[in-house]
Design goal:
By secondary structure, this protein is an all-alpha fold. The chain contains twelve helices and no strands. The chain has helices at residues 2-48, 52-62, 72-97, 106-135, 146-154, 158-166, 170-196, 204-220, 222-232, 242-252, 257-260, 264-295.
Length: 296
Amino acid sequence: MKADVSGNSNRTHLTWSKRSYTIGAVSSFLSTIVTFPIYKTIFRQQIHAFAMRAAMRQLRQEGLRNFYRGIYPPLVAKTIQGTLLFGTHDSFLNLFSGNPSGPYTLKDRWTAGFFSGSVEAFVLSPFERVQNIMQDGRKVTSFPNIHSILREFNSYGLKESLTMGYYRGLFPVLLRNGLGSALYFSFKDPLRDSLSERGLPSWLPAFVSGSINGMVTCLMLYPLSVLIANMQSQTGQYSVSLRQCMKTIWESRGRKISLLYQGGSLIILRSCVTWGLTTAIHDFLKANKDQKSTKQ
């Protein structure tokens, strides 16, 4: 009897894991389509230090045909991100805590989140690299499509194609994604559980928790995103060092924190929609799956 119960438990955990990968992929796919115009506007602000109106005016001048230019890399990347975000986090959480059913400490959630974000960063960094070149209006003529970017990278030597091509700016990407996932998973469930005690509709605590965590995390790490956008939009085998790039950005922003956060208002909206939607869908379907498993 014990072997049978253990087998059912393992199958339940495996089924939930497969379901969470699917949920994450679908929710991230839809969220990317909805929020891509916001992200592209933010990117132009990060690159050119534009005000929001100037960035939107530049996009309008480029026309509707180019409005969704560069969406394919983030669409693929965010879909993969959705599968990795929850799946690898749960795997690391079980590994570090040694207790699949919980409860988990803050240290367990933080550590699992950091490693999950690091794996995600390593897998998705090439997608972000291509995406940032595609979205830079200065690169439209020299790199009209994805194939031209890949052809450029592949023309380098093996080492250069990785360090100067696909994985340029890897260190700040690892730092941003690792810290971001650690913060998100550390406080997502505690905040959701706290809101659930207030008698709110079942889907609202997860949505609010995801929105708040996504917003706060993105704002805290926004300077890193600015640094990554500038490093990854560079092309050619000549690589500006991390320190040089940081210095150039700081000088171009007039040594003002406020200008460094150019685009911060839009990132609040994008983060709220993206993380709120993803968290609500995942937690809602996970709860339904757990209820069905309990009844069985």
